[in-house]
UniProtKB/TrEMBL annotation:
Membrane topology: Single-pass membrane protein
Catalytic activities: L-gulono-1,4-lactone + O2 = L-ascorbate + H2O2 + H(+)
Family per record: Belongs to the oxygen-dependent FAD-linked oxidoreductase family.
Domain FAD-binding PCMH-type: 18-188
Localization, UniProt: Microsome membrane; Endoplasmic reticulum membrane
EC numbers: 1.1.3.8
Predominant localisation class: membrane
PANTHER family the record matches: L-GULONOLACTONE OXIDASE
Cofactor: FAD
UniProt keyword terms in alphabetical order: Ascorbate biosynthesis, Endoplasmic reticulum, FAD, Flavoprotein, Membrane, Microsome, Oxidoreductase, Transmembrane, Transmembrane helix
Record-given protein name: L-gulonolactone oxidase
NCBIfam families, per the entry: FAD_lactone_ox
C-alpha cells in the first residue's frame, strides 16, 4: 500500500478568497498512508497541511508544500450508546455525522451554520454557534488522536495527556494530523426556531432577558439602520413545521440582492437602502420553524463573502456594538452589508479558544462580493478591528484579522504554553504555513 500524490492540483477555499498550488496533493485512506506522506515530507524537508472541508475564509489551510485532503478518512469508528459518545475519523463531514448520529438516537448539542465541514476542521479553528450555556464546538470533544511530525500517534483526553488535549481542541492544524475525534453527544432532539423583528436599542437594553429566554439566542443587526431580527432556538416536542419563504426558497432574494449589491458598487450609499429594503421585505413578521436540531442549526449559505468575527467579553457587548453603530453613522461613506450577526458563547479552558476563561459575544461582520466583484472594505474592517481590540476581543482563527504574535501573546494567557507544546511536537515547523507564521513568529 503506497499513497500516491497528485501534482498540479489547485486548492481554493469555499469563498474563493484564498487558494494555493500544493507541490503534491494526497488523499490518504488510512493512518498508514498519512504516515507515508509525513515520512516523505521529513525526507524531503517539505511542509504539510491537512485540509478538511476547505471552508475556512482565511488562508489557514493553504500550503505550497504537501496537502493532505482528509475526505477519505471519514468513517464512524465507534458509537458508545451508554456514554453517548461517538468516535470518528477526523475527515468526516458533519453533514454525514449528523445523519448517522440521528439513526442512533443521538445528536451534537450545538453546531455551526454549515455542515460540509469536517470534525478536525471545525474544532481546529474554534468554530462556534450561539447559546450562552454552550461552548464552542470543540468543547464537545472528549478525546482525540493525532499523528505528530515525528510519526508518533498521540492519544489525549481530559484524563490522558491533558495539556496536549487542551492544546489540540483548538489546534490550528499545527500540532499534527488529527486522526480521530471523540464527541460527547446528547439524545437526539428537535428545535423550534422563532424569529421576530426588533430594534437595536430594544435588544441591547434587554440583553440579559433575551439570553435567559432562549437557549440558543442570537440576533442579526441590519447596519445603517435600527433594524434587528431576534432569533430564538429552543428544544421542542412539537411536530416539525416549515415556514415557506418563496423568496429565499426559490433563490429570488439571492439574485435580487446580488444584483442590487453589484449596482451599489457604483453608488455605495445605496447599501443603506438595500439593508432597510431587505429587512422590510423578509424580516418584519414573526416566523416559526421546527425540525431536527441539525436542520435548524444549519442553513444554506449561497453568498461568497469576506468575514471577520471577533469574540469579546460578554459584558462589553453593548459598548462595542454602540461604538460600531456610531462609527457607521459618523462615516456614511463606509459600507456595511447586512447582517451583522451577534452570537453568545460560554467560556471554556481550551488554550487557544477565543472564549478562554470568559463568556463571550461574537460580532460577525461581512462584505459580499457580488458576481465576484470586490467591494472596498478597508475602513470598515479597520474601524471594526480597532473597536474589537479596545474591548479586549480575540479574532476567529479561520476568519480575517491583522493580528500577529505580539497581539496573541497579550490576548491569550495560555499562548506561551501552546507554543511550547507546538515546538516540542513539531520542532522544524512541518505544519506551518504563511498564515501560521504570522501567529507564531
Ligand atoms: C458558509 C460558511 C459558514 C460558516 N459558519 C461558521 C459558523 O457558524 N461559526 C464559525 O465559528 N465558523 C463558521 N465558518 C468557518 C468554518 O466553520 C471554519 O473555517 C472551519 O474550520 C471549517 O472547517 P473545514 O473542515 O472546512 O476546515 P478547513 O478550512 O479545511 O481547515 C481548517 C483548519 O483545520 C486544519 N485541519 C483540517 N483537518 C485537519 C486534520 N485532520 N488534522 C490537522 N489539521 C486539520 C487545516 O489545516 C486548517 O488549519 C463558516 C464558514 C463558511 C464558509
Amino acid at each position: 500500500m503506497t499513497v500516491h500524490g497528485q501534482k498540479g492540483f489547485k486548492f481554493q477555499n469555499w469563498a474563493k478568497t484564498y487558494g494555493c498550488y500544493p507541490e503534491m496533493y494526497f488523499q490518504p485512506t488510512c493512518v498508514e498512508e498519512v504516515r507515508q506522506v509525513l515520512d516523505l515530507a521529513r525526507q524531503q524537508n517539505k511542509r504539510v497541511k491537512a485540509v478538511g472541508g476547505g471552508h475556512s475564509p482565511s488562508d489557514i489551510a493553504c500550503t505550497d508544500g504537501f496537502m493532505i485532503h482528509m475526505g477519505k478518512m471519514n468513517r464512524i469508528l465507534k458509537v458508545d450508546k451508554e456514554k453517548r459518545q461517538v468516535t470518528v475519523e477526523a475527515g468526516i463531514l458533519l453533514m454525514d455525522l449528523n445523519v448517522e448520529l440521528s439513526k442512533h438516537g443521538l445528536a451534537l448539542s450545538n453546531l455551526g451554520a454549515v455542515a460540509d465541514v469536517t470534525a478536525a476542521g471545525v474544532i481546529g479553528t474554534g468554530t462556534h454557534n450561539t447559546g450562552i450555556k454552550h461552548g464552542i464546538l470543540a468543547t464537545q470533544v472528549v478525546a482525540l488522536s493525532l499523528l505528530t511530525a515525528g510519526g508518533t500517534i498521540m492519544e489525549c483526553s481530559e484524563t490522558n495527556n491533558e495539556d496536549l488535549f487542551k492544546a489540540s481542541q483548538v489546534h490550528l492544524g499545527c500540532l499534527g494530523i488529527i486522526l480521530t475525534v471523540t464527541f460527547q453527544c446528547v439524545p437526539k432532539y428537535h428545535l423550534q426556531e422563532i424569529s421576530f423583528p426588533s430594534t437595536f436599542k430594544e435588544v441591547l437594553d434587554n440583553l440579559d432577558s433575551h439570553l435567559k429566554k432562549s437557549e440558543y439566542f442570537r440576533f442579526l443587526w441590519f447596519p445603517h439602520s435600527e433594524n434587528v431580527t431576534v432569533i430564538y432556538q429552543d428544544h421542542t416536542n412539537k411536530p416539525p413545521i416549515s415556514a415557506a419563504n418563496w423568496f429565499w426558497d426559490y433563490a429570488i432574494g439571492f439574485y435580487l440582492l446580488e444584483f442590487l449589491l453589484w449596482i451599489s458598487t457604483f453608488l455605495p450609499r445605496l447599501v443603506h437602502w438595500i439593508n432597510r429594503f431587505f429587512f422590510w421585505l423578509l424580516f418584519t413578521s414573526k416566523v416559526e420553524n421546527r425540525d431536527l436540531s441539525y436542520k435548524i442549526f444549519n442553513f444554506e449559505c449561497r453568498f461568497k463573502q469576506y468575514v471577520q468575527d471577533w469574540a469579546i467579553p460578554i459584558e462589553k457587548t453593548v459598548e462595542a456594538l454602540t461604538e460600531l453603530k456610531t462609527l457607521l453613522e459618523n462615516n456614511p461613506h463606509v459600507v456595511a452589508h447586512f447582517p451583522v450577526e451577534i452570537r453568545f458563547v460560554k467560556g471554556d479552558n481550551i488554550l487557544l479558544s477565543p472564549c478562554f476563561q470568559r463568556d463571550s459575544c461574537y460580532v460577525n461582520i461581512i462584505i459580499y462580493r457580488p458576481y465576484g466583484k470586490e467591494v472596498p472594505r478597508l475602513d470598515y474592517w479597520l474601524g471594526y478591528e480597532r473597536i474589537m481590540k479596545k474591548v479586549g476581543g480575540r479574532p476567529h482563527w479561520a476568519k480575517a484579522h491583522t493580528c500577529t504574535r505580539k497581539d496573541f501573546e497579550k490576548m491569550y494567557p495560555g499562548f506561551q504554553k501552546f507554543c511550547a507544546i507546538r515546538e516540542k511536537l513539531d520542532p522544524t515547523g512541518m505544519f506551518l504555513n504563511a498564515c501560521l507564521e504570522k501567529v507564531f513568529y
